[in-house]
Write a structure and sequence with these properties.
By secondary structure, the chain is mostly helical. It is built from 20 helices and 4 strands. The longest helix is centred in the C-terminal third of the chain and has 33 residues. It is globular. It starts with 8 loop residues before the first helix and ends with a helix.
C-alpha cells in the first residue's frame, strides 16, 4: 500500500510565495471592484496598484536570503531579492504616468492595471525559481499580459506591434520548451541545481554533453528572442514604436532584466562546468547585438526607434557580463540596470512631454528628430533634462549609466577579456553620435513651426517621475559605491 506523505505548512515555507500572491491578489481585487462598481476614476486604480506594489516590495525585502520553499520550487537568494526589488521599483515609477494624459484610453480600463499586476507576478516567478517549468509559467504569464497592454494603446499601429511581439514571444516559448525538454530528457530533472549535479558527474559522456549543449543552444535562442538580441531582434523596434512611450520604456528594462536573471542562472551552470561553446555563443551574440544595433540606431529618423535600437544595444552590452560568469560581472548586470532603469524610463517619458494629434513632421513617425528642433527655445528645462538623459545613455561621466558601463568593462578586463572591453568602448563611442544628434537638434537647430496641433504635457505626475530620474542620473556619483557594495553582497549570498 502507498504511504501517505505528510507535509506541514512550516516545511512548505509559503512566505516565499508572498510577494507573488500580493500582486495576484491585488489584480483580482481590482477586477472585483470593477465588477461591483464600474466607471470609477482611473486615479483610484493607480493608487491601488501603487499600494499593492509597495506592499509587494515590503514582502520582498522581508524575505530571508538563501531559502527554498513550496516543494523547493521557489529559490529566494540574493539575486532573487534584488531583481524583484528592481522590477517593483521600475513598476512603481511607470504606473503613475497613467495620470498624465486623457488621450490614451487604455488607462481608463481597470483591466489595464489588473493585467499589469499579473505581469509583475509572472516576472517575479521567473526570477525566484530555478525550476524550468515554473520559469516557463512565469515567462508566459508575464508575456501574455504584456501583449494585451500593448494592444490596448489607442493607435493604429498598436495592434500590429502586439501581434509582432506575440509572434516573437511565441517563438521564444517554443525554443524554451524544446530546450527545457532536451535538458530534462538527458538529466532527468527540471531543477537547475540537480541538472548541474548530473552534468558535473557525467562530463565524460560525450553523447550527454552534445545533447546538453543542444538544449542550451535552444534555450539561448529563446532568451535572444526575449531580449531582442541579434538576429532575433527584427520586430522589436516595431513593438516599441506601437506601444505608448512610457510602456516602450518599461519594455526596454523590466522584461529584459527578468530574462537576464534567468539566463544568468541557466548559462552560469553551463559555464561553471567548463562548457566553453555556450560561453562563446553568448559572446558572439553580445558583440553582434551591441554593434549592429548601434549601427541601426545611427540611421533612424525617429527618436523613439533610435531609443529602441539603443535599448537593444544596451541589452547586448549587459549580456556579455553573463559570459564572464564572475561575481563582479553579475554585480555589474544589476548595477547597470539600476542606473539604466531611471535614465531610459526618463528618456522615454520625455517623449510624452510634447504631443501632437497628427503626424505633423512625418507621415509615419510620432517622434522625428525635427519635432525636437530648437526645444531649448520652446522648453529650456525640457531640453536640458533630455540632454542629461542622452549623455548618461552615451556613458559620459559622471552620469549614472557610465558607472554601469565602466564596471562591466572592468569585470571583462579582470576576467581576461581585454578585447571585449575594447569592443564595448568602441560601441560606446559609436552610440555617442546618435545621442549627440538629438542634442544638436534641441540646442542648435531653429524651432519647428507650431501650427497649434502641438501641446506640451506638463502634468505633475509626469514631472515628478522625470524629476526622480534626473536626480538619480545626476547624483549617482555620490551613492554608486554603497550600491555596488550592497549588490556585491547580495550576489555573493546567492546560489545553492
Amino acid at each position: 500500500m502507498l504511504e501517505a506523505i505528510s507535509v506541514s505548512l512550516e516545511d512548505l515555507k509559503l512566505a516565499t510565495l508572498t510577494p507573488m500572491l500580493v500582486a495576484i491578489g491585488g489584480a483580482l481585487a481590482i477586477l472585483i471592484i470593477d465588477l461591483f462598481k464600474d466607471g470609477l476614476h482611473k486615479s483610484l486604480y493607480v493608487m491601488l496598484t501603487l499600494l499593492v506594489l509597495l506592499v509587494d516590495l515590503g514582502a520582498v525585502l522581508g524575505l530571508s536570503v538563501n531559502q527554498r520553499g513550496f516543494f523547493n520550487l521557489m529559490l529566494i537568494d540574493g539575486i532573487s531579492i534584488i531583481s524583484q526589488a528592481l522590477i517593483l521599483l521600475g513598476s512603481m515609477l511607470f504606473i503613475p504616468l497613467a495620470l498624465t494624459s486623457k488621450r490614451f484610453h487604455e488607462y481608463s480600463y481597470p483591466e489595464y492595471f489588473a493585467l499589469f499586476l499579473f505581469m509583475i507576478a509572472g516576472y517575479q516567478f521567473m526570477v525566484s525559481s530555478d525550476n524550468l517549468i515554473l520559469i516557463f509559467v512565469g515567462l508566459e504569464t508575464a508575456s501574455l499580459a504584456l501583449y494585451t497592454l500593448i494592444a490596448m494603446h489607442n493607435r493604429p499601429n498598436s495592434y500590429e506591434a502586439a501581434v509582432k511581439y506575440f509572434t516573437m514571444g511565441a517563438m521564444a516559448a517554443g525554443f524554451f520548451a524544446m530546450g527545457a525538454a532536451t535538458v530534462y530528457a538527458t538529466t532527468g530533472s527540471v531543477e537547475l541545481y540537480k541538472i548541474a549535479e548530473v552534468m558535473q558527474s557525467r562530463m565524460d559522456e560525450a553523447g550527454l554533453m552534445i545533447a546538453l549543449i543542444g538544449g542550451g543552444t535552444l534555450l539561448l535562442v529563446a532568451f535572444a528572442f526575449k531580449m531582442s538580441l541579434f538576429p532575433f531582434h527584427t520586430w522589436g523596434p516595431d513593438a516599441y514604436e506601437g506601444a505608448s512611450a512610457p510602456l516602450a520604456g518599461y519594455m526596454s528594462i523590466i522584461p529584459k532584466l527578468a530574462a537576464l536573471v534567468v539566463a544568468m542562472r541557466i548559462f552560469g551552470m553551463y559555464i561553471d562546468i567548463g562548457i566553453e561553446a555556450i560561453r562563446d555563443a553568448i559572446l558572439v551574440l553580445s558583440v553582434l547585438t551591441m554593434t549592429l544595433a548601434n549601427i541601426m540606431a545611427l540611421v533612424q529618423g525617429d527618436v523613439k526607434r533610435m531609443l529602441a535600437y539603443s535599448s537593444i544595444s544596451h541589452a547586448g552590452f549587459v549580456m556579455a557580463a553573463i559570459a564572464l560568469d564572475t561575481t563582479k560581472g553579475n554585480t555589474g548586470i544589476f548595477l547597470y540596470y539600476t542606473m539604466f532603469l531611471f535614465t531610459n524610463l526618463g528618456a522615454f517619458a520625455m517623449l510624452w512631454i510634447s504631443r501632437h494629434k497628427n503626424n505633423t513632421y512625418h507621415d509615419r513617425f510620432d517622434h522625428p528628430y525635427e519635432k525636437f528642433a530648437g526645444l531649448i527655445h520652446v522648453m529650456p528645462m525640457g531640453a536640458v533634462v533630455m540632454a542629461l538623459f542622452m549623455l548618461s545613455l552615451a556613458g559620459v561621466p559622471p552620469f549614472s549609466v557610465f558607472w554601469g558601463k565602466i564596471f562591466i568593462m572592468g569585470a571583462a578586463v579582470d576576467a581576461g577579456y581585454v578585447w571585449l572591453a575594447i569592443v564595448m568602448g568602441i560601441n560606446s563611442a559609436i552610440s555617442a553620435y546618435y545621442y549627440l544628434k538629438l542634442i544638436v537638434y534641441m540646442f542648435l537647430k531653429d524651432p519647428a513651426s507650431n501650427d497649434g496641433t502641438i501641446y506640451y504635457n506638463l502634468a505633475k505626475p509626469l514631472m515628478t517621475i522625470i524629476g526622480i530620474a534626473v536626480v538619480v542620473t545626476v547624483t549617482s556619483i555620490f551613492y554608486v559605491q554603497p550600491l555596488i557594495n550592497y549588490i556585491s553582497y547580495m550576489v555573493g549570498a546567492s546560489g545553492y
